[in-house]
Design brief:
The chain is 80% helix and 0% strand. It is mainly alpha-helical. α3 packs antiparallel against α4. It is found in: Cell membrane. It comes from Filimonas lacunae. Required for nicotinamide riboside transport across the inner membrane. GO terms for molecular function: nicotinamide riboside transmembrane transporter activity.
């Protein structure tokens, strides 16, 4: 336990300014997504763009590809969430997935996990291909569902955060692993907040 604590403190002292900024903007992004606030996206663009560099530098190649995807999807989500009808009403509202949605989501997730794992094993020097692929596949799925305002996006973020905490810690990005602990708490809270919003909107409909 003492060794783990010293490793944690050494990691914090070694935190670079890019990682520090990526963590702060990342936390801000998840905080705004929790309340379904469109500011999730500009903060998300900044954080994920920095993490593209950080992931490549740390040899987390699937995570690097994931963050490139994040940048693109943050820009797409920014547009999707900002759309309004002629009367000024938001086009997108929080909804839940039906059985068909779940089938498609699980197929997408399973396909992404397998494809990323095979790519990492064959074409990269990743030392944690299975875990790296799992974290990335669940995050790909979560981001896709969040842009559609599907409440189940939080389930995939919870999975992503649980896997990412040790993944970044063993690579020496201690401050980032702390970020994922915060993300995990926010994801659980986000599910509760979105559920309440969804329930309230359905009662008013």
């Amino acid at each position: 336990m003492e060794l783990l604590f010293h490793q944690f403190m050494d990691g914090l002292r070694a935190t670079t300014w890019p990682e520090f900024m990526a963590v702060l903007t990342g936390i801000a992004s998840v905080y705004f997504s929790r309340s379904a606030n469109i500011l999730v996206y500009p903060f998300g663009v900044i954080s994920t763009a920095i993490y593209v560099y950080i992931s490549f530098a740390g040899g987390l190649f699937a995570e690097a590809g994931l963050n490139i995807y994040y940048v693109i999807m943050n820009l797409a989500g920014w547009y999707m969430w900002s759309r309004r009808t002629d009367t000024g009403e938001k086009v997108l509202h929080i909804t839940t997935s039906n059985g068909r949605d779940w089938q498609q989501t699980l197929l997408f997730f399973g396909g992404m996990w397998l494809a990323l794992w095979l790519l990492l094993r064959k074409f990269t020097t990743s030392t944690v291909p299975l875990e790296d692929a799992l974290a990335s596949a669940s995050a790909y799925t979560g981001m896709f569902l969040m842009n559609k305002k599907k409440m189940e996006n939080w389930i995939w973020w919870i999975i992503t955060n649980i896997v990412s905490i040790p993944l970044y810690f063993i690579k020496g990005y201690v401050f980032t692993s702390v970020q994922f602990i915060i993300f995990l708490a926010l994801a659980i809270s986000g599910w509760i907040v979105w559920y309440r919003k969804w329930k309230q909107e359905n009662l008013m409909a």
